Structure formats: structure tokens, C-alpha cells
# Entry
Amino acid sequence: MSGNFDVWKLLAGLGIFLFGMFLLEEAVKALTGKAFRRLIRSYTDGRLKAICSGSLVTAILQSSSAVSLMVLAFVGAGVMSMENGIGVIMGSNIGTTFTAWIVATLGFKIKIDSFALPFIGIGGVGLILWKPPTKLSQVSRLLIGFGFLFLGLDYMKGSVEAFAHNFDLSQIPDYGLWLYLLLGTILTALMQASAASIAIALTALNSKLITFDMGAAIVIGANVGTTITVLLGSIGGTPAKKRVAMSHLLFNVVTGVVAFLTLHGLVRFIQLFFDIHSNSVVGLALFHTLFNIIGVILFFPFVGLLARLLLKLYPDRKTVLTVYLANTPTEVTDAATAAMKKEVHHLLQECQLYNLRLLHIDEKLVFDQDSFFEKIKKKKISLIELYENIKLLHAEIFAFYSRLQAQRLEENEAKENERVVFASRNIMNSIKNFKGIQHDLEEFDAAGNSYLNAQYKLFRKRLLEIYHDMNRIQRLDNREEQYRTLLQTFLHIEEVDTHFIRETMNAVSAGHIHEMEIASLLLVNRLFTQACRMQVFSMKDLLLTPEQINNFDRALDMKEIMEEEKTKSLKNK
# Structure
């Protein structure tokens, strides 16, 4: 028997094993992912429940990283408390040992070919017969994943068996067990899969390439290395996400240190149940589970203390997004109403800034100072962050309005507040329209059709004109002049809309655009026009008196009636 070490066969086996793990995890998440998310969200109202839920879900999903990332999301969204999040992470470390038990009890006890190949064969045929995203397609992926898992293990085992047959363990320099601890950590950090590192350790142990103590050190290192996925997931995240990632790191590192320091004692304890010479791989799987359970027992009484410590280390820094509401008490109703009206003006400005950036228009053409959001951040923020801040600001305005309505208000005050919050809603509906057409506008700009390119430029020009008009209206001192100019601006929006539709029809007749492009153009124009209307309506409710608002609405009603009569007379002719 040759003593050569087939490194390529080992790497191929590792690759197949990792691919099998990936398919298995993705299939299980697709089949039952929502159910598991509900389980983690619903059955974590206590530390013990959280640990049990984390263990169960991880054992089935075969991925402690996936469960930990779920916890990151739930804690970050405020759906799960920090203490229960730590409980789920502790449980996931116990659940992840299930993989080692599968590999130890099945992977080295049966003939792999007769076990793995039928799974791959049946799964492969199923994948051809049933296309995604059907459940049968996901079941087929699960079968293939399960088959590849053991086929990869067989390749790894085969690659070292011949080498191990003539290998003398005493040839390895005695650098100490810390070297194997470091090896397990680095391997898992690079592959982001502790199961693969543990499978390598089990394979080497089964082939007598390493001793039981060396294998145990690699497993401890794998437990520490698995924290890299969650740490990466928390980069740039909220303080809540950073607290979860740090709790994961602390638990795994402290558990690893305790296990490493008491390694010889734990090995002697395992020898009471298993002969680690004849049944070493099962003994190593037991060691993996045992030291994680010890870690949970050690941490369980201190979960609350750890949560409070992490809260101090990563406190919630709530950014104040409001300019006028933060220090205004709702008890002083007239001041609160004035502050809310100013805050909605601020919301409108942030909304205009978002729309300008979405259409790549230089905001200096409209604004002479930076956004308040960017003043407090002291840097330019992304379009996504700007949109999220606008939503949060709207929520704060609505919450302030709700508290204000609970005060004793005069009828006219209550109606004025209602108009102001209605203006806020119109602004939010407007920005949602712009967000909805962003992709279409980008397609018009990048299209190979010169007519579509021209329409993109026209939308930018229309928006700039409207914002110049709106800013000019806000600077007017005379209410009557504001009323007339605002009405003219609205009528201009309607005229431009009518002109756009007429020009589009002419372009269709001339063959400048195709059918799909017609639909996209008309949809974008409709949402764009609606968004502009809603911004004008918001200004109407913020600037005009109740009487002027009624006159404004009547004028629009009269215009609609006149247009209807005009349409009827044309039909009669």
C-alpha cells in the first residue's frame, strides 16, 4: 500500500463536504426556514426556552452561524431581548454538535458508497424532474446535500488512510496542543464552517494521524473560529447587533479556554463511557457536546449580568432626527402645533433632497445648506440611510401628534394638527412613489434609445422647476400670493402631465418607442406626477389658512368639472 499523501483528494473531499453542507443548509432553510424563524421569535421568552430553541433549530438547520445571524436580525429589530438572544446563541453551540454525532456514528461505521450514492442519484433525478422553487425540488437538494456530505467525508478518509498506514505519530514535532487549537480556529475562520474542521479532525483521528487530545484541541479551536461569521455580520451594524456578536465571541472563547485548561480531566471523564482507542470518533463527538454543555452551565447564571455589561459596552446611541420636536412639550399646545408644522417643513426638505439625489441632480441648485441629518452625522449619508431617516422622522412626527391629540385642544387646533399630519403623510407617499420609479428612471438613462434618454433629462428638469417654485412660494410673505402661486404651480404640473402624454402618443406614432417602453414611460409619469401633486398638497396644508384651503380644493373641483364638460362636448361633436 502506498504511503503517499493525496493532498488533492483531501481538498476535493473537503470541497464536496462543504458543498454538501451548503446544499443541506439551503434546502432545510427553504423548506422550514420561516417555521424556524417563528420558533426562535416565539419560544424565547425565557433563558431555558431560548437555549432549547437554539439547540433544536441548530441541530436541524446544521448551522450555528445561520441561527446566530437570525438572532442578530431579531435583536437588532427589537423583536428579541438581549438576554434571550444570548440564550439562543448558547443553545446553538450545543445544537451544532449534532453534526459531529452524525459524522462519527454514520460516516465511519458504514460503507459510504452504498449509502451516499443512492442519495445523490435520487436527488439528482428529482432536481431534473422538479424545478425550483417547488418543495420536491428542495427535498431533492436536501438528498444531494446529504449524499455529498458523506461522499466528501469518504474522499477525505481515503486520502489519508494510505498515508496513515505507514505513518509514525512520533514523527510530528511536539509543539503542544495549543498548535492544534490554533489550527482548528484558523481552518474554521477561513471556511466559516466548524462542521468541516471537525470532520477533518474526526477523519485524522480515525486514521490515527493524530491523538485524541490533538483532535479535542482542534474541536475547541473550531468552536472559537465559528464566531467569525457573526462578527462579520455585525460590522457596521447597530449597537444591538454588536452586543449579540460580542456575546457569541465571549461565550465561545471562555468556553474554549475552560475546555482547553481542563482537557485532560474531560478526556478521563469520557473514558468512563467510551474506549477512546477503539471508538475514538464517537468519543470526540461526546467531548464536543460535553464542553459546550459545561459552557452553558457556567454562563447560565450570568446571562443577565453579561447582557447589562454589553449594554454598557455598546450603548444605544439614539440619533435625534427632529429639529423642533425634541425639546417641545405637548402640554403647551400652541407651541407644540407650531413645532410640529416646522418639523413637517423639515421632513419636506429631506424628502426633496432624497428625490434630487435619486435623479442625480446637484442639491446645491435647490438648497443653500446641508441636510440636518448630515449635520448631526457630520458626513454625507447614503440614499438608503437617508430614506430610513426620513421614515423614522415621519414616525416621530406621528408619535408627537398622537401625544398632542391627548391634550385638551380647541376644535380649530385639533383640525390644524390633523392637516399638518396629513401633510406629513402626503410627503411620505410622495417619496415612496419616487423610490418605486428609481429603477425605471435608471433604465431610461442607460437605454440605447435617444428618446428615452431625453425623457430622463426631462423628468430631472420638471423636478427642478417644481422645487424652485415650491421654495419661492415658501419665501413669500403674503398668504394670498402664496395661495395664487401654489395653485398656479399645481395647474402647471397638470399641464406638463397632459403635454407628456400627448408627446408620448406622438412618439408611438412615429415609432420612436416600443410597446414595453410605452408602458414604463406612462407608469413613471403617472407616479412622478402624483408625487409632485402630493408635495404641493402638503404645502397647501402647511402654508394656507382653512379658508384658502377650501378655495384651493374648490378651484381644483371646478377644473375637473370643466374638463369633464369639455370631454363630453368633444364626444358629442
About this structure: The chain has two domains: 7-313, 333-547. Residues 7-42 form the longest helix (36 residues). The chain has a mean pLDDT of 82.
